[in-house]
Amino acid sequence: MAFKLEVLDFLDQGRSIREASTRFNIPSRSTIREWQRRYESGGADALIPRLRGRRPMKKPPKPSYRPAGKMTSKEMEEELM
Predict the structure, then answer these.
(1) Which of 55, 60, 63, 81 gives 20 to 30 Å between its CA and that of 31?
(2) How far from chain centre, in Å, is Cα 56?
């Protein structure tokens, strides 16, 4: 977030977006415009990166596995059904 504020401060000194993108090595000028828009609408907190995409799925519980040698005959029958 500090880097974005530094870029925006550079612009407040009367510099152009083109100068800022060259000085700070930002390839896309639209990125700087987006930072400006966010800062003007929500302040510095709006510049904090937000999570994107889906949340990870919960892993299904692992089935309890018992080797066949340690299972009772009843447990083996239940497993087959």
Answers:
(1) 55
(2) 11
Domains identified in the chain, total number? 1
- What value does the CA radius of gyration of the chain take, rounded to a whole number of Å? 28
pTM for the full predicted model: 0.61
Do 15 and 4 form a contact (C-beta atoms < 8 A)? Answer: no
Whether 26 is in a domain gets the answer yes
Tell me whether residue 63 is in a domain: no
Question: Domain residues for 27?
Answer: 2-47
pLDDT in tens, 17-67: 999 999 999 999 999 999 999 999 999 888 988 888 888 888 887 766 666
Return d(Cα 32, Cα 38) in angstroms, integer: 10
